[in-house]
């Protein structure tokens, strides 16, 4: 059998044209759906770096669900924190997105735009659960420009600001009166840098979009169609950070720091303050006992009266073959009882209505852990997720790079923020 | 009986065109699926506005026009080019000197050969972390410098020092690999040439320049070609040392880092990243051609 030139030419043409087949329409279906059918079948459930510490908890939860709904089987997949968004995007692009996926609102947004997330408001089975959650938490998974809600609210998290009392004392500051406002923070930071001859910085990270939000900067316009953090308040914040950077009150390596590296600097006493959560107390106790003896805990610094919170959700794949089971499972994991039991295993906070009134979140027993938990639960009632839902990774990089230019003196704070807003708006328009 | 089972001449002729294709089929399949298809897909995507989850539309040369006005692209091109200029000469010369050192068969030399080769087999992530710890503002190198009275040096916070540090790590990690290639080449240099040169009164340096270098010239070209392509496509070292943002203000970003940053994630601009990939491909092809052309000129 000879392979003719015609066959070879056809194969070559197909190889060239095949990739073009990816270029078609693929928007999601926005019509209402009903997942109230029989709960049965096999579904997959993906969590975000939870297996290592909570394996038995989730296995128990899955067993309870399978017992409650005979005929169902849940396959649990856990992905590491590193590259989580990349893993989801690879699955989504390949059509292998799990039926129920652990997401934050900024991860839910592109999936919803691509029509891969079930609109819970439009789905008859899912919409009836809305009243079980805190209104703000349910609204946390709304996507600007898209009607609907695209993930069940799961746990909320916020955290205090830790500080090293010993370093505060060395700099002649009152360690029992940590800064509460940005103005006090900047003054104390400059004093610590001055007294330690620049050897101890107070902060280890450049300002992020959440910092601009806490400072009181309007992040987006009223319509939510364009970014606006280059206003006078934004410029003021960046100007203050520049002063800190010049005085070494902001760590010189802050321009390339990650949350992990800045946490490490706090552990070693190179940095005086660092944000964290109640989970960190355990780390301090085991990894840095000297620091633990001197640890101070204070509230997040905010000019708005509202602290920042992180919101986790469970998205239901709109193309799931077992949608009733997927919706039922996502609700099961996030219902009041199961969120409460999860909260008691780890320092997170439930998003279900009334759960934060539980004595577990309102009564102190004298330990630091309880103090942090009660204070955080209290602040959560008015907390805000300052990260705009449409603020993508590319936008975060654009802001970070422009902030770095301002801190290095290569651009004025105003010019840097103007450039960042321009770049972010351009990315926003590109969709 | 043998004659009756042997295929006739005409049957052999009929089978010849098919059997090579069958033997080559697995190779074609693997190459087609894992090399050709992704490459062609990248070429097609470069002319679309495709995003990770949103299929693209044909946009012609728009991505390439945008590249011309993208500061980050020029920064990436500059850094990747500087990387080639900084790393390639070192990787052509230093492994050769190292190979000369460990070429001799003296007791214990196997230990040094293995030691020099260790960085090659070490995970790049581990290597990156070790060097970050060493070069950190409070790391070992800066502690030593401070002991000597010099202030802390911003190896990881200064734009240029960071790039040079990453180059040093690339050279350090690549030395052993190219040393092995040179060792093989040196083993083929006739000993008589060295002896003749020595009889003529040539010293060690003279013998190196007039005997060793000409004898391993083609290997040097090979090393230059391999290392220049690898250097232009550098990612891991810079990513690990400069962080995901590509150093302060992204000033240490290389082209491949830019491809990764632009084209991945849920909001990745696959079309635009593909356009950058094509530029990387074109430049590496040109680099290879330049090196090979220089080699041919030398031979002529």
From TrEMBL, chain A:
Record has Signal as a keyword: yes
KW Signal (keyword) present: yes
Signal peptide start-end: 1-24
Record keywords: Signal, Transport
CDD domains recorded: PBP2_TMBP_like
Classification via Pfam families: SBP_bac_1
Family indicated by similarity: Belongs to the bacterial solute-binding protein 1 family.
PANTHER family: MALTOSE-BINDING PERIPLASMIC PROTEIN, MALTOSE_MALTODEXTRIN-BINDING PERIPLASMIC PROTEIN
Name listed for the protein in its UniProt record: Sugar ABC transporter substrate-binding protein
Organism annotation: Streptomyces cynarae
Automatic annotation (TrEMBL), chain B:
Record-linked InterPro entries: ABC_transporter_permease (IPR051393), MetI-like (IPR000515), MetI-like_sf (IPR035906)
Family, similarity comment: Belongs to the binding-protein-dependent transport system permease family.
Keywords: Cell membrane, Membrane, Transmembrane, Transmembrane helix, Transport
Subcellular locations according to the entry: Cell membrane
Chain ranges passing through the membrane: 21-40, 82-102, 114-134, 160-187, 208-232, 270-292
Membrane topology: Multi-pass membrane protein
SUPFAM superfamilies in UniProt: MalF N-terminal region-like, MetI-like
The protein's name: Sugar ABC transporter permease
Every ABC transmembrane type-1 domain range: 77-291
